[in-house]
Amino acid sequence: MSKLCLIAGDQLNMNLSCLQALDPDQDHVVMAELSNETGYVQHHVQKIALIFSAMRHFADRLGNEGYRVHYHSFDPSAELRTFTDAIKACCDQHDIDQIVLTRPGEWRVLDEFNQLEDRLGIPVQILEDDRFLSTPEEFADWAEGRKTLRMEFFYREMRKRTGLLMDEDDQPVGGQWNYDAENRKKWTGDPESSAPMHFQPDEITQQVLDLVAEHFDGFGELEGFDYAVTTGQARRALSHFIKTALPWFGDFQDALPDDEDYLFHSRISAYLNIGLLQPLEVCQAVAEAWQDQTADAEIPLNAVEGYIRQVLGWREFIRGIYWLKMPEYAELNQFDNQADLPDWYWSGDTDMRCLAKAISATRRNAYAHHIQRLMVTGNFALLLGIVPKQICDWYLAVYADAFDWVELPNTLGMVMHADGGLLGSKPYAASGKYIQRMGDHCKHCRYNVQTKNDSDSCPFNSLYWDFLIRHQDQLKDNARMRMMYRNVDRMSDEDRKAVLQRAEWIKQNVEDL
Length: 513
Ligand code: DLZ
Known about the structure:
Rossmann fold, Serine Threonine Protein Phosphatase 5, Tetratricopeptide repeat, DNA Cyclobutane Dipyrimidine Photolyase, subunit A, domain 3, 5% strand
């Protein structure tokens, strides 16, 4: 009699709770490359390659450490398509008396796991995913009785709980919890940008790249794949980021330069989200580098705090919201959006320079940084009024780090404000002026960012006013929107009419922008 555990493609960590519950000498591990998982959205081909290669490397490591691993390589014609099929195949061949799983990253999969016991007639235990620093239950306790859920307060609790960036009197180091106000500088080329560490594909990765090229023709470019695929490599990528980019990460975190894919961003999120790195080790490495000043230049506190806030605060907060509110959360559509996702979100074929650049970088790298996601592709989707499900599926597909628990609240809540403000206190709606302020896309764009009603006006501009006017009833009493609505009130009737007309034209001709 023995146990079986299944390790999904985003659970690749030796400390995973279900692995800890196994006796390697007699129990079984199942891993499977599955058409059901490659097919629920049109994943970026590099995302599939990353997951398959990291899974294969992880399975090898488990094998070397004495585990009995049953690994199913991708076969498009295989009857084995789902997690349930893979588990059942192992149960049919071995005398399994218990199935042990770790909470998956998606409600859909948890639902599948919850049905296993009835389907297979074998007891199933679902353990907490302790790669995270807080559990859904702890988050629910924290959220209980609060009128609004704000990341900042949750983050402070997490700082206290972990002791990260806290002084000996249990106060935040430097006297402030949050240094975000210092993190909004425009970048003009100095200091030189730093690229994330590249990894040359090894034999396993090359086999995966060949397989993906043969069987998948979805979104993005496979050429240039250079992700880390093992924990060892991911740790080197983290050290490289700390040494070469962390000192400037904070200052230029929101910058939007025209020709930089990464600037000082780390590209660590994919490694965290598939399990190659653990959030605590990332935060501790960053905090220690600041304490010991081990980078190429002085690491300021705003950079360190900003980075740790993303991992310890935002990432955990987002996951808490996901498990607190699913499955109803996925259906929310506060603004009753009806517009379809323009086709050029897939091709990048638009004259709007900021969007074309963000999408072409996404096609090349399966990555865009957070301001491209929030204020460029996201902002346009919000202003245009794209159906939340369509834009959420797009984000889930195109980024290597996108899994439902992280992508859905970020897109539906933060980007689209479709949860009515549960997650963010106001919609992140902005005109082209914001994009102009943060970078130099507008200089190279055929649209004029200075105007809003002309035939060559930046589409963000008229759509921005149109968005404010359309949703006035819902948003005008929001304290953080008052200034915007004062500007709406100041508009002449003529101006208002012209802006709405131009916005309507844009909506009718969105595929041709
Ligand atoms: C995203 C993904 C893909 C593309 N392929 C697989 C796969 O073949 N096998 C697997 O175990 N996991 C894969 N994943 C990750 C799963 O979709 C992910 O585990 C669930 O969405 C839960 O987060």
